[in-house]
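Problem: given the chain below (105 residues), write out its structure.
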Amino acid sequence: MGDIEGFLACSKKIKSDAGQIIHIVTPVEINIKGSKALAVSIANIAARFKYGGRDVDLISWARLISKLERVDAGRKSSWKLMTLEVIYMRDSIIPAAPSSIDLSG
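Solution.
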């Protein structure tokens, strides 16, 4: 892993193992200064897959930071996304069915 090729290879494997992967992005906070803006939000990415013969849920959290610029085109103007930075926060893997885990010790 560590490079884009490794990331894509792992993502394809997770996709084939997990089926559907759900992305949830919280409301975005946007700070505008003139023709530039900074947008910040939190994303959760959830996938279910098998680990040790049991279904588990992987939930990842990331902070999304985007730089935008207003572009004028004659009488119209629009905002264009210039960058998107994804900052990893944390992951958790939890049993999909907690009753399937033996806690007796």
